């Protein structure tokens, strides 16, 4: 299921920050992880991912470094910054509140029921 | 490895690398793609996206590396290239989003510059749109101020208009036709050589080419060299002088003033006014709405001739007095007063000042007659003369109000009109200001081929910086109202700090206001000087009236009175007071006769000594507006103010 762009705009960055919480990742790795772990709901192509990563980097929430892959190719790795960790904590609380509210309203139950 | 040539690598190497002596070629995205071994369709997609981002070259390389790595990672994970391409997304959208995101990563200085650039561009855009809008605004001329100032002249019945008689007399006298004379001007012939410096040599060296009026000008008094020639001229033209006297009996002057082309060729000839043929041709068949027919462009050539006529009448009065012809002398001096009244037919300061000038010439002549021919006039003639002079009140308020017409006409021809008195200055307004203003205004700092474009470009700024129409008119009106208030105050009650002078200086003390009210600066007449002239006129008239009363007293008693109070009420209804202090005038009897004077602007009694300025020029009365308007401490410190204002006998102007 593809989610609406506006919803993706809010959820995508939190999802990426959450993935990077466990350690640094490179672009394709993030795409695959999002696809697999969200069962395709938060799947995004390069057209969405890289602008998002650049925006998060511009805001100082993540930082990148160039390093060589196992096969020697250059590859850019992203990792959370201190500021990014704080933002993730804050956004997580927000999402939990929203989810709880939706749950209380029966929105998420309906989804689960469906 | 890339196969790029050295030249290509050089071109694709960042400057920072070149400075370090390294030809890295790391800006070569094609080489990167070649080295990546990506399938052609993937490589092409990366190339197109990167190109579309229009980022800086290093940023493009960064994006290219990232996208290449993404495809390579996908291929290594055995994802089919078709699936990778499909999940890539829209190229155009991707490039746009990447560009936007990458720009956010740029340094703060770049962001500041970008915002500054955007601000400037927006401002310029707004400015250009404003200039174009303001350029569409045009003045709306609704009032024919030439007709307004001619209102009184238009009401004069044809048979009561003096001008046709003056015109005839002027044409007969032919005063301004240049011709060759056998002798020099007598005054200059007798002048010592060193004093002839800076004087037209034709006045004293052959060929003596000049007009009759110039010769007469220097021989208007019986003691002047060449007086006998003046007498001869006056006798030869007695008929024309008589015609002038007849003209002064008419109700009004009756000349409708206007532009050069409005006058008949006879009018122009009589006024000795010879405009360029192009000027006359350019002004034919135009209505008052035409930009060329702004009030400021009117011609008033008759005013100079009024002064000449007054001089002729003065000379004729003295000729008659010398010949013992009291009746003609009296008629001439009364004619001067009537001529002066006629001169004020148009409610303009120019007219008023010329009227005052002519009246003052008449006063000098009366004084000359009374002093040099004390027994010429009978007691009745002296009383009649005193009555005429006492009744010659000047009505100066219309002159001040007439000054408003110049400004109102300027406003209606240079500002837009919203129908409720408001409006903003137009391009024509700035052009007119530039042509009128000789000062150091911003409009005068450049004059060249781009003047028009610069004026257009300055329109929005001018609309903001120069006061709008309603405000401009209000401020101007306030100043004129203040000038009228000042002029009606006795001088001893006048405080310069509350007067026009101080208020005007206060407004114009800031450079912002000087620009905001630039039209005021251009159009505001020197009203304080006019105020001084009016008071000096009345002081002069007081002196002549006292002189007549003293002569009457002397004729009856054989001696001078001990006090001026002895003159009232028999010879004067009341004794004039000192117009500077409000106190009694000073009176002394000297070897030459009685002396009547005001203490002058310095406020102390100098025994009737007239101030002499640093150039040795006699300054009877108030020599300059600052003397009238400045604080007393300044006046006392000014050597030009040290002395008294002598009212009888008044020293002749030099």
Explain this structure.
The complex is a heterodimer of chains A (114) and B (654). With 114 residues, chain A is an alpha+beta fold. Helices cover 63% and strands 14% of the residues of chain A. Chain A contains five helices and three strands, in the order αβααββαα. In chain A, strands 1-3-2 form a three-stranded antiparallel beta sheet. In chain A, strand 2 and strand 3 (74-80) form a beta hairpin. Chain B has 654 residues and is mainly alpha-helical. Chain B has a three-stranded antiparallel beta sheet with strand order 3-4-5. In chain B, strands 1-2 form a two-stranded antiparallel sheet. In chain B, strand 3 (586-590) and strand 4 (593-598) form a beta hairpin. In chain B, helix 20 (349-372) packs parallel to helix 29 (527-557), helix 21 (379-390) runs antiparallel to helix 29 (527-557) and helix 22 packs antiparallel against helix 25 (469-488). Chain B starts with 5 loop residues before the first helix and ends in a 6-residue tail after the last strand. The mean pLDDT of chain B is 89. The interface between A and B is medium-sized, with 27 and 25 residues.
């Amino acid at each position: 299921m593809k989610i609406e762009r506006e919803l993706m705009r809010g959820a995508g960055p939190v999802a990426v920050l959450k993935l990077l919480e466990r350690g640094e990742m490179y672009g394709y790795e993030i795409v695959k992880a999002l696809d697999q772990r969200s069962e395709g709901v938060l799947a995004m192509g390069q057209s969405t991912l890289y602008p998002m990563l650049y925006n998060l980097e511009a805001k100082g929430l993540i930082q990148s470094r160039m390093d060589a892959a196992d096969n020697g190719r250059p590859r850019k790795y992203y990792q959370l910054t201190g500021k990014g960790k704080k933002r993730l904590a804050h956004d997580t609380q927000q999402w939990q509140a929203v989810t709880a509210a939706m749950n209380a309203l029966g929105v998420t139950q309906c989804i689960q029921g469906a | 490895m890339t196969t790029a040539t050295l030249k290509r690598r050089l071109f694709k190497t960042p400057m920072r690398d070149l400075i370090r002596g390294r030809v890295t070629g790391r800006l070569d995205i094609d080489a990167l793609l070649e080295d990546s071994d990506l399938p052609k369709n993937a490589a092409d997609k990366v190339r197109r996206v990167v190109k579309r981002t229009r980022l800086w070259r290093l940023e493009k390389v960064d994006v290219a590396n990232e996208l290449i790595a993404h495809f390579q990672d996908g291929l290594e994970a055995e994802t089919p290239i078709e699936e990778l391409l499909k999940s890539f997304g829209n190229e155009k959208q991707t490039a746009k989003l990447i560009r936007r995101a990458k720009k956010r990563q740029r340094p703060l200085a770049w962001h500041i510059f970008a915002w500054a650039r955007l601000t400037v561009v927006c401002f310029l855009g707004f400015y250009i749109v404003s200039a174009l809008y303001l350029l569409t605004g045009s003045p709306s001329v609704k009032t024919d101020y030439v007709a307004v100032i001619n209102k009184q002249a238009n009401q004069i019945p044809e048979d009561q208009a003096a001008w046709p008689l003056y015109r005839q007399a002027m044409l007969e006298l032919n005063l301004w036709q240049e011709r060759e004379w056998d002798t020099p001007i007598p005054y200059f012939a007798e002048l010592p050589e060193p004093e002839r410096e800076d004087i037209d040599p034709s006045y004293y060296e052959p060929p003596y080419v000049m007009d009759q009026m110039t010769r007469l000008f220097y021989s208007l008094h019986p003691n002047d060299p060449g007086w006998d020639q003046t007498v001869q001229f006056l006798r030869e033209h007695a008929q024309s002088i008589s015609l002038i006297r007849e003209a002064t009996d008419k109700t009004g002057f009756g000349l409708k003033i206007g532009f050069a082309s409005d006058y008949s060729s006879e009018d122009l000839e009589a006024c000795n006014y010879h405009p360029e043929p192009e000027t006359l041709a350019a002004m034919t068949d135009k209505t008052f709405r035409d930009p060329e027919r702004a009030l400021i462009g009117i011609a008033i050539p008759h005013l100079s001739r009024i002064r000449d006529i007054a001089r002729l009448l003065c000379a004729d009065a003295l000729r008659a007095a010398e010949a013992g012809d009291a009746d003609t002398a009296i008629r001439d001096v009364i004619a001067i007063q009537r001529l002066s009244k006629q001169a004020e037919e148009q409610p303009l300061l120019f007219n008023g000042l010329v009227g005052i000038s002519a009246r003052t010439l008449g006063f000098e002549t009366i004084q000359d007659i009374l002093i040099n021919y004390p027994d010429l006039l009978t007691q009745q003639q002296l009383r009649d003369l005193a009555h005429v002079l006492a009744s010659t009140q000047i009505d100066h308020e219309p002159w001040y109000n007439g000054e408003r017409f110049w400004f109102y006409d300027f406003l209606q021809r240079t500002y837009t009109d919203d129908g409720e008195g408001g409006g903003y200055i137009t391009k024509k307004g700035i052009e007119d200001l530039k042509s009128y203003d000789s000062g150091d205004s911003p409009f005068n700092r450049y004059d060249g081929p781009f003047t028009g474009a610069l004026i257009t470009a300055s329109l929005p700024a001018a609309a903001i910086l120069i006061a709008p129409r309603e405000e401009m008119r209000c401020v101007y009106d306030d100043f004129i109202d203040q000038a009228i208030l000042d002029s009606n105050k006795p001088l001893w009650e006048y405080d310069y700090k509350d007067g026009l002078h101080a208020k005007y200086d206060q407004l114009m003390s800031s450079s912002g206001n000087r620009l905001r009210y630039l039209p005021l600066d251009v159009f505001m007449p020197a009203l304080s000087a006019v105020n001084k002239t009016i008071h000096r006129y009345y002081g002069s008239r007081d002196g002549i009236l006292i002189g007549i009363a003293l002569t009457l007293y002397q004729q009856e008693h054989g001696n001078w009175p001990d006090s001026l109070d002895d003159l009232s009420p028999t010879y004067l209804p009341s004794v004039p007071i000192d117009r500077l202090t409000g106190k009694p005038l000073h009176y002394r009897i000297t070897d030459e006769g009685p002396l009547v004077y005001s203490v002058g602007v310095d406020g102390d009694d100098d025994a009737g000594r007239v101030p002499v300025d640093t150039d040795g020029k006699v300054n009877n009365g108030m020599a300059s507006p600052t003397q009238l308007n400045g604080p007393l401490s300044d006046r006392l410190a000014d050597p030009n103010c040290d002395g008294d204002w002598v009212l009888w006998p008044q020293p002749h102007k030099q």
